[in-house]
Specification:
Elements: E1 5-9, H1 15-23, E2 28-32, H2 64-71, H3 77-83, H4 87-105, E3 109-113, H5 121-128, E4 131-136, H6 139-149, H7 156-159, H8 162-169, H9 173-180, H10 186-207, E5 212-215, H11 216-221, H12 223-233, H13 240-250, H14 270-273, H15 276-280, H16 283-297
Parallel strand pairs: 1-3, 1-4, 2-3, 4-5
Helix pairs in contact: 3-4, 6-10, 10-16, 12-13
Length: 298
Protein backbone atom coordinates (compact mmCIF):
# COMPACT_ATOMS: atom_id res chain seq x y z
CA UNK A 1 0.00 0.00 0.00
CA UNK A 2 1.30 3.43 -0.94
CA UNK A 3 1.65 6.19 1.68
CA UNK A 4 -1.35 8.49 2.23
CA UNK A 5 -1.40 11.77 0.35
CA UNK A 6 -2.42 15.31 1.27
CA UNK A 7 -3.30 17.69 -1.57
CA UNK A 8 -3.54 21.23 -0.24
CA UNK A 9 -3.07 24.92 -1.05
CA UNK A 10 -5.44 27.89 -0.84
CA UNK A 11 -9.10 27.13 -1.53
CA UNK A 12 -10.17 27.93 -5.13
CA UNK A 13 -6.67 27.07 -6.32
CA UNK A 14 -7.27 23.78 -8.12
CA UNK A 15 -6.83 21.33 -5.25
CA UNK A 16 -10.00 19.46 -6.26
CA UNK A 17 -8.75 19.00 -9.83
CA UNK A 18 -5.30 17.87 -8.72
CA UNK A 19 -6.73 15.54 -6.08
CA UNK A 20 -9.20 13.94 -8.50
CA UNK A 21 -6.51 13.43 -11.13
CA UNK A 22 -4.18 11.75 -8.62
CA UNK A 23 -7.05 9.61 -7.32
CA UNK A 24 -7.57 8.42 -10.92
CA UNK A 25 -4.48 6.26 -10.37
CA UNK A 26 -6.75 3.81 -8.53
CA UNK A 27 -4.36 3.70 -5.57
CA UNK A 28 -6.29 6.14 -3.40
CA UNK A 29 -9.68 6.76 -1.87
CA UNK A 30 -10.52 10.44 -2.31
CA UNK A 31 -11.46 12.14 0.98
CA UNK A 32 -12.76 15.69 0.68
CA UNK A 33 -11.86 18.39 3.21
CA UNK A 34 -11.87 16.80 6.67
CA UNK A 35 -10.78 20.20 8.06
CA UNK A 36 -13.68 22.02 6.45
CA UNK A 37 -15.66 23.80 9.16
CA UNK A 38 -18.73 21.87 7.94
CA UNK A 39 -16.98 18.51 7.59
CA UNK A 40 -18.87 15.25 8.10
CA UNK A 41 -18.26 13.58 11.49
CA UNK A 42 -18.44 10.16 9.87
CA UNK A 43 -15.31 11.08 7.91
CA UNK A 44 -13.39 12.81 10.72
CA UNK A 45 -14.51 12.27 14.30
CA UNK A 46 -13.05 15.49 15.70
CA UNK A 47 -14.36 19.06 16.08
CA UNK A 48 -13.18 21.75 13.68
CA UNK A 49 -13.50 25.28 15.06
CA UNK A 50 -11.81 27.47 12.46
CA UNK A 51 -11.27 27.76 8.75
CA UNK A 52 -7.61 26.87 8.16
CA UNK A 53 -7.23 25.17 11.53
CA UNK A 54 -3.59 24.73 12.50
CA UNK A 55 -2.56 21.30 13.76
CA UNK A 56 0.77 20.69 15.45
CA UNK A 57 2.18 18.52 18.22
CA UNK A 58 0.99 21.00 20.85
CA UNK A 59 -2.70 20.47 20.02
CA UNK A 60 -2.69 17.10 18.27
CA UNK A 61 -4.42 15.28 21.13
CA UNK A 62 -7.79 16.36 19.70
CA UNK A 63 -6.96 15.15 16.20
CA UNK A 64 -4.32 12.41 16.04
CA UNK A 65 -6.52 9.38 16.75
CA UNK A 66 -9.34 10.78 14.60
CA UNK A 67 -6.99 11.22 11.65
CA UNK A 68 -5.53 7.75 12.12
CA UNK A 69 -9.09 6.45 11.68
CA UNK A 70 -9.64 8.60 8.59
CA UNK A 71 -6.39 7.46 7.01
CA UNK A 72 -7.33 3.84 7.73
CA UNK A 73 -10.66 4.57 6.00
CA UNK A 74 -12.64 3.76 9.12
CA UNK A 75 -16.02 5.39 8.76
CA UNK A 76 -18.08 6.34 11.84
CA UNK A 77 -21.74 5.77 10.91
CA UNK A 78 -23.17 6.43 14.39
CA UNK A 79 -21.45 9.84 14.64
CA UNK A 80 -22.73 10.64 11.16
CA UNK A 81 -26.29 9.49 11.86
CA UNK A 82 -26.54 11.81 14.85
CA UNK A 83 -25.58 14.77 12.64
CA UNK A 84 -28.01 14.17 9.76
CA UNK A 85 -30.38 17.04 9.00
CA UNK A 86 -31.64 16.28 5.49
CA UNK A 87 -31.96 13.68 2.75
CA UNK A 88 -28.92 15.28 1.12
CA UNK A 89 -26.91 14.53 4.26
CA UNK A 90 -28.15 10.94 4.11
CA UNK A 91 -26.96 10.70 0.51
CA UNK A 92 -23.52 11.98 1.51
CA UNK A 93 -23.37 9.41 4.26
CA UNK A 94 -24.14 6.58 1.85
CA UNK A 95 -21.49 7.90 -0.57
CA UNK A 96 -18.76 8.31 2.02
CA UNK A 97 -19.44 5.05 3.87
CA UNK A 98 -19.40 3.05 0.65
CA UNK A 99 -16.27 4.85 -0.57
CA UNK A 100 -14.40 4.10 2.66
CA UNK A 101 -15.56 0.47 2.67
CA UNK A 102 -14.57 -0.09 -0.95
CA UNK A 103 -11.22 1.59 -0.37
CA UNK A 104 -10.42 -0.73 2.54
CA UNK A 105 -11.54 -3.76 0.55
CA UNK A 106 -9.24 -2.83 -2.32
CA UNK A 107 -6.30 -1.90 -0.12
CA UNK A 108 -6.24 1.76 -1.12
CA UNK A 109 -4.60 4.60 0.75
CA UNK A 110 -6.39 7.81 1.67
CA UNK A 111 -5.96 10.92 -0.44
CA UNK A 112 -6.97 13.95 1.61
CA UNK A 113 -7.96 16.85 -0.60
CA UNK A 114 -7.99 19.68 1.88
CA UNK A 115 -7.03 23.30 1.24
CA UNK A 116 -7.82 24.08 4.88
CA UNK A 117 -4.91 21.87 5.96
CA UNK A 118 -2.33 24.04 4.22
CA UNK A 119 -0.80 25.53 7.38
CA UNK A 120 -0.72 22.05 8.94
CA UNK A 121 1.04 20.24 6.09
CA UNK A 122 4.26 19.62 8.10
CA UNK A 123 2.20 17.93 10.84
CA UNK A 124 0.53 15.65 8.29
CA UNK A 125 3.95 14.71 6.94
CA UNK A 126 5.70 14.22 10.27
CA UNK A 127 2.93 12.67 12.38
CA UNK A 128 0.80 10.86 9.80
CA UNK A 129 3.44 9.96 7.20
CA UNK A 130 1.57 11.78 4.44
CA UNK A 131 3.22 12.80 1.24
CA UNK A 132 2.25 16.37 0.41
CA UNK A 133 1.28 18.18 -2.79
CA UNK A 134 0.74 21.96 -2.56
CA UNK A 135 -1.07 23.74 -5.39
CA UNK A 136 -0.25 27.39 -6.09
CA UNK A 137 -2.53 29.52 -8.24
CA UNK A 138 -1.82 32.97 -9.70
CA UNK A 139 -2.93 35.53 -7.08
CA UNK A 140 -5.15 37.45 -9.52
CA UNK A 141 -6.88 34.21 -10.53
CA UNK A 142 -7.44 33.35 -6.86
CA UNK A 143 -8.84 36.79 -6.04
CA UNK A 144 -10.98 36.75 -9.18
CA UNK A 145 -12.50 33.40 -8.23
CA UNK A 146 -13.45 34.60 -4.74
CA UNK A 147 -14.80 37.85 -6.16
CA UNK A 148 -16.97 36.01 -8.69
CA UNK A 149 -18.47 33.82 -5.95
CA UNK A 150 -18.81 36.69 -3.49
CA UNK A 151 -16.70 34.80 -0.95
CA UNK A 152 -14.89 36.80 1.71
CA UNK A 153 -12.74 35.70 4.64
CA UNK A 154 -12.92 36.54 8.33
CA UNK A 155 -9.36 36.77 9.66
CA UNK A 156 -10.60 36.03 13.18
CA UNK A 157 -10.32 32.40 12.10
CA UNK A 158 -6.55 32.90 12.00
CA UNK A 159 -6.20 35.53 14.73
CA UNK A 160 -8.01 33.29 17.24
CA UNK A 161 -5.43 30.50 16.87
CA UNK A 162 -2.54 31.31 19.25
CA UNK A 163 -0.37 28.42 18.03
CA UNK A 164 -0.72 29.51 14.41
CA UNK A 165 0.28 33.03 15.37
CA UNK A 166 3.18 31.75 17.45
CA UNK A 167 4.61 29.55 14.72
CA UNK A 168 3.78 31.39 11.51
CA UNK A 169 1.57 34.46 11.43
CA UNK A 170 2.50 36.75 14.33
CA UNK A 171 4.30 39.27 12.02
CA UNK A 172 1.05 39.64 10.05
CA UNK A 173 -1.28 40.29 12.97
CA UNK A 174 -1.57 44.07 12.26
CA UNK A 175 -2.39 43.42 8.60
CA UNK A 176 -5.04 40.86 9.47
CA UNK A 177 -6.62 43.14 12.06
CA UNK A 178 -6.64 46.03 9.57
CA UNK A 179 -8.24 43.82 6.90
CA UNK A 180 -11.02 42.87 9.30
CA UNK A 181 -11.79 46.54 9.77
CA UNK A 182 -12.58 46.82 6.04
CA UNK A 183 -14.83 43.79 5.40
CA UNK A 184 -16.16 45.24 2.14
CA UNK A 185 -12.67 45.33 0.55
CA UNK A 186 -12.64 41.82 -0.89
CA UNK A 187 -9.55 42.41 -3.00
CA UNK A 188 -7.48 43.45 0.01
CA UNK A 189 -8.67 40.51 2.10
CA UNK A 190 -8.22 37.89 -0.63
CA UNK A 191 -4.79 39.25 -1.56
CA UNK A 192 -3.68 39.15 2.06
CA UNK A 193 -4.96 35.60 2.55
CA UNK A 194 -3.11 34.45 -0.58
CA UNK A 195 0.09 36.12 0.64
CA UNK A 196 -0.12 34.63 4.13
CA UNK A 197 -0.72 31.12 2.84
CA UNK A 198 2.07 31.09 0.30
CA UNK A 199 4.58 32.85 2.53
CA UNK A 200 4.11 29.99 4.98
CA UNK A 201 4.32 27.43 2.15
CA UNK A 202 7.58 29.01 1.01
CA UNK A 203 9.01 28.73 4.51
CA UNK A 204 8.00 25.19 5.39
CA UNK A 205 8.77 23.74 1.97
CA UNK A 206 12.42 24.67 2.48
CA UNK A 207 12.51 22.28 5.44
CA UNK A 208 10.54 19.63 3.52
CA UNK A 209 12.13 19.26 0.08
CA UNK A 210 9.98 16.18 -0.53
CA UNK A 211 6.84 18.33 -0.70
CA UNK A 212 5.66 18.73 -4.28
CA UNK A 213 4.75 22.37 -4.94
CA UNK A 214 2.99 22.69 -8.30
CA UNK A 215 1.53 25.66 -10.15
CA UNK A 216 -2.06 25.47 -11.33
CA UNK A 217 -1.08 27.43 -14.43
CA UNK A 218 1.61 24.92 -15.45
CA UNK A 219 -0.80 22.00 -15.06
CA UNK A 220 -3.44 23.91 -17.05
CA UNK A 221 -1.14 24.71 -19.97
CA UNK A 222 0.34 21.23 -20.37
CA UNK A 223 -1.85 18.86 -18.33
CA UNK A 224 -0.61 15.54 -19.70
CA UNK A 225 3.05 16.46 -19.43
CA UNK A 226 2.86 18.07 -16.00
CA UNK A 227 0.62 15.44 -14.43
CA UNK A 228 3.04 12.81 -15.78
CA UNK A 229 5.83 14.65 -13.96
CA UNK A 230 3.80 14.86 -10.76
CA UNK A 231 2.92 11.16 -10.92
CA UNK A 232 6.61 10.37 -11.40
CA UNK A 233 7.63 12.55 -8.46
CA UNK A 234 5.12 10.66 -6.30
CA UNK A 235 6.32 7.32 -7.72
CA UNK A 236 2.91 6.53 -9.17
CA UNK A 237 2.45 4.80 -12.53
CA UNK A 238 0.88 7.10 -15.13
CA UNK A 239 -1.06 4.70 -17.31
CA UNK A 240 -3.63 5.12 -20.05
CA UNK A 241 -6.53 5.30 -17.58
CA UNK A 242 -4.84 8.23 -15.84
CA UNK A 243 -4.04 9.94 -19.12
CA UNK A 244 -7.66 9.57 -20.21
CA UNK A 245 -8.88 11.14 -16.96
CA UNK A 246 -6.55 14.11 -17.42
CA UNK A 247 -7.62 14.53 -21.06
CA UNK A 248 -11.33 14.46 -20.16
CA UNK A 249 -10.87 17.01 -17.40
CA UNK A 250 -8.87 19.53 -19.45
CA UNK A 251 -9.82 19.18 -23.13
CA UNK A 252 -10.81 22.09 -25.34
CA UNK A 253 -14.45 21.00 -25.67
CA UNK A 254 -15.12 21.54 -21.97
CA UNK A 255 -16.61 24.77 -20.55
CA UNK A 256 -14.16 27.64 -20.22
CA UNK A 257 -15.20 28.26 -16.60
CA UNK A 258 -17.15 26.43 -13.92
CA UNK A 259 -20.79 27.19 -13.39
CA UNK A 260 -21.60 28.94 -10.12
CA UNK A 261 -24.07 26.07 -9.58
CA UNK A 262 -21.28 23.45 -9.85
CA UNK A 263 -18.25 25.16 -8.42
CA UNK A 264 -16.35 21.93 -7.74
CA UNK A 265 -16.54 20.61 -11.29
CA UNK A 266 -13.15 19.53 -12.61
CA UNK A 267 -14.07 19.33 -16.30
CA UNK A 268 -12.83 22.58 -17.87
CA UNK A 269 -11.01 23.78 -20.92
CA UNK A 270 -7.91 24.24 -18.81
CA UNK A 271 -6.16 26.63 -21.20
CA UNK A 272 -9.20 28.86 -21.65
CA UNK A 273 -9.76 28.92 -17.89
CA UNK A 274 -6.36 30.59 -17.49
CA UNK A 275 -7.68 33.75 -19.14
CA UNK A 276 -10.85 34.21 -17.10
CA UNK A 277 -9.39 36.49 -14.45
CA UNK A 278 -8.19 38.89 -17.14
CA UNK A 279 -11.80 39.36 -18.25
CA UNK A 280 -13.26 39.68 -14.75
CA UNK A 281 -10.80 42.16 -13.24
CA UNK A 282 -10.12 45.72 -14.33
CA UNK A 283 -6.58 46.92 -15.02
CA UNK A 284 -6.67 48.89 -11.77
CA UNK A 285 -7.75 45.84 -9.80
CA UNK A 286 -5.01 43.71 -11.34
CA UNK A 287 -2.42 46.38 -10.52
CA UNK A 288 -3.64 46.51 -6.92
CA UNK A 289 -3.49 42.73 -6.52
CA UNK A 290 0.00 42.74 -7.98
CA UNK A 291 1.11 45.40 -5.50
CA UNK A 292 -0.48 43.61 -2.53
CA UNK A 293 1.01 40.19 -3.34
CA UNK A 294 4.29 41.12 -5.06
CA UNK A 295 6.60 40.26 -2.16
CA UNK A 296 5.39 36.68 -2.02
CA UNK A 297 4.41 36.20 -5.66
CA UNK A 298 7.90 37.07 -6.87
Amino acid sequence: MTAPLLVTGAHRSGTTWVGKMLAASGQFTYVSEPLNLWHRPGVLRAPVKHWYSYLCQDNEADYLDAYHDTLRLRYHPWAELKSLRSLKDLGRMARDWSSFSLGRLRGRSALLKDPFAVFSAPWFAERLNCRVVVVVRHPAAFVSSLKRLGWTFNFRHLLDQPLLLRDWLKPYRPQMEAADEAPEDLIQRASLLWSLIYRVVQQYSQAHPGFQVVRHEDLSRAPLEDFADLYAALELPFGERDRAAVRRSSQAGNPSEVSTRAIYSVNLDSRANLENWKQRLSADQVARIRALTAEVAS
